């Protein structure tokens, strides 16, 4: 690697780190805002929240790195163009393609590294994040009593406090409706009360002072009791208020939580079962055909046999019985064929869905290489090398790429497009445009509708 190659890579390094970090930060803010209501008020430890964010950073990295490549090439080559360094290189006998060689090597290495991350790290991170989210959703909000409002957070109890001391947490004017005992209803009222958890966090203890208990057995109005007390403790089950981790192996994995080898096994199994269902369908069709052919061939024989019967009533009865039997047999064969066809289609659809995810693991990392052919020549054309211009172009091409990716996935799921074409559509569109643009800029033959206007516009901004 000569001095020019090192200079170009060094010019890309800082914008690449900045671009990736910015995109990850935006994804992270979106993630926090979307899930803030599921995390706040549950008394979660900061380490649990940190783990959840760290696990979700995996998919953010996969989406951010290609955009970071596009942003860094736009910034680097835009800066070189603005400083007339591109002109100096060309005057020395160089070309854009020669300047892009270290960038392309960097893109290939980055694509391979992102592919390994996408295949080896991301599935486990997605699965652990799903399991952790499931555990968090099961946690009840941190227990709290609001003054003048009924609380039903604890199963079997309805609690009302007229006022709450914000400093000590002391409850005043407490009324408790105890429904935990099926055969008896307790209504407890007290002047003051205070909550505390047992050391193992399994029970919630409510210490009450100066009150009375009204006991009533439903359906027996003669058995009504009033008990006065100075101090009284109620032990309530506190299940759901503590965080418990679930073993990751217990929860099944989805398509985005498997690596390529595991998904390929599922695809092969689905294709095998689809072939078996198709074979059974063919067998049933042959049986169906043979049965119908047998009915036609035996029709004359049956007519002759029926004619020999002594009475017309016996002839009709035999004919009706034969028709009913044939109808039942045809109905059974038809339902069997329809079931096999449905199974074949379901297995094919499952295979396509997993094939889409397999191709996605290849296509997204390869976008790091494809975006180089857009960022380098486009940076030279705009001659900007500034953040706003590069960010705008990066966002625009990224939106186009993801529109192709998401649209292709929808078409593939509906069976309108093959999994390979659906996931590589964005790379093909962006790559074709980038290669054409690179060749035109390299040969200094840039000409497309509006190219002169765009060049004048960005030179004026400069």
List the helices and strands and how they pair.
Blueprint: H1 3-39, H2 46-82, H3 85-91, H4 96-137, E1 150-151, E2 157-164, E3 171-178, E4 185-197, E5 203-217, E6 220-237, H5 260-297, H6 299-307, H7 312-370, H8 372-382, H9 387-413, H10 419-442, H11 451-461
Antiparallel strand pairs: 1-2, 2-3, 3-4, 4-5, 5-6
Helix pairs in contact: 1-2, 1-4, 2-4, 2-7, 2-8, 2-9, 4-7, 5-7, 6-7, 7-10, 8-10, 9-10
The global form is: flat
Residue runs with pLDDT of under 50 for 5 or more positions: 303-310
What's the helical proportion of residues? 55-70%
Q: Biggest sheet: strands, sense, closure? A: 6 strands, antiparallel
| Tally of DSSP helical segments | 11
Task: Estimate what percentage of residues fall within beta strands.
Answer: 5-15%
Short description:
The chain is α+β, with helices and mostly antiparallel strands. Helices cover 65% and strands 14% of the residues. Among the domains are: 229 residues, no CATH class; 88 residues, no CATH class.
Kindly describe this structure:
The chain has 462 residues and is of the alpha+beta class. It contains eleven helices and six strands. Strands 1-2-3-4-5-6 form a six-stranded antiparallel beta sheet, with no helix packed on it. Helix 7 (312-370) runs parallel beside helix 10. The longest helix has 59 residues, at 312-370.
């Amino acid at each position: 690697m000569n001095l020019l190659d090192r200079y170009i890579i060094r010019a890309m390094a800082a914008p690449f780190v900045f671009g990736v970090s910015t995109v990850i930060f935006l994804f992270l803010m979106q993630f926090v805002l979307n899930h803030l209501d599921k995390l706040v008020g549950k008394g979660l430890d900061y380490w649990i929240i940190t783990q959840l964010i760290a696990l979700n950073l995996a998919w953010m990295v996969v989406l951010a790195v290609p955009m970071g490549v596009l942003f860094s090439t736009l910034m680097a080559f835009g800066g070189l163009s603005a400083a007339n360094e591109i002109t100096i290189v060309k005057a020395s006998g160089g070309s854009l393609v020669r300047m892009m060689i270290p960038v392309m090597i960097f893109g290939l290495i980055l694509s391979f590294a992102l592919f390994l991350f996408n295949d080896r790290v991301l599935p486990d991170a997605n699965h652990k994040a799903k399991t952790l989210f499931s555990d968090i959703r099961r946690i009840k909000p941190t227990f709290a009593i609001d003054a003048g409002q009924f609380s039903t957070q604890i199963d079997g109890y309805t609690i009302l406090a007229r006022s709450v001391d914000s400093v000590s947490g002391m409850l005043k004017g407490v009324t408790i409706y105890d429904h935990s005992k099926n055969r008896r209803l307790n209504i407890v009222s007290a002047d003051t009360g205070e909550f505390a958890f047992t050391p193992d966090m399994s029970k919630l203890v409510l210490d009450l002072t100066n009150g009375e208990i009204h006991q009533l057995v439903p359906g027996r109005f003669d058995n009504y009791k009033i008990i006065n007390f100075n101090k009284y403790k109620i032990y309530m089950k506190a299940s759901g208020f503590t965080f418990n981790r679930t073993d990751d192996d217990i929860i099944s994995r989805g398509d985005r939580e498997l690596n390529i080898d595991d998904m390929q096994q599922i695809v092969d199994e689905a294709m095998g079962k689809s072939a078996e269902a198709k074979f059974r369908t063919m067998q049933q069709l042959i049986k169906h055909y043979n049965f119908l052919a047998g009915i036609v061939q035996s029709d004359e024989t049956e007519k002759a046999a029926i004619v020999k019967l002594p009475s017309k009533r016996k002839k009709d009865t035999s004919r009706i019985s034969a028709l009913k039997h044939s109808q039942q047999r045809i109905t059974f064969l038809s339902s069997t064929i329809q079931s096999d066809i449905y199974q074949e289609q379901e297995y094919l659809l499952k295979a396509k869905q997993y094939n889409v995810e397999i191709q996605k693991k290849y296509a997204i990392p390869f976008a790091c290489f494809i975006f180089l052919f857009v960022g380098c020549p486009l940076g030279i054309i705009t001659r900007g090398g500034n953040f706003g211009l590069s960010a705008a172009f990066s966002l625009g091409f990224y939106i186009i790429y993801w529109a192709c990716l998401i649209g292709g996935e929808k078409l593939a799921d509906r069976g309108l497009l093959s999994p390979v074409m659906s996931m590589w559509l964005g790379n093909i569109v962006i790559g074709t445009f980038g290669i054409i643009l690179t060749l035109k800029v390299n040969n200094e033959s840039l000409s497309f509708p509006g190219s002169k206007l765009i060049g004048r516009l960005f030179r004026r901004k400069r």
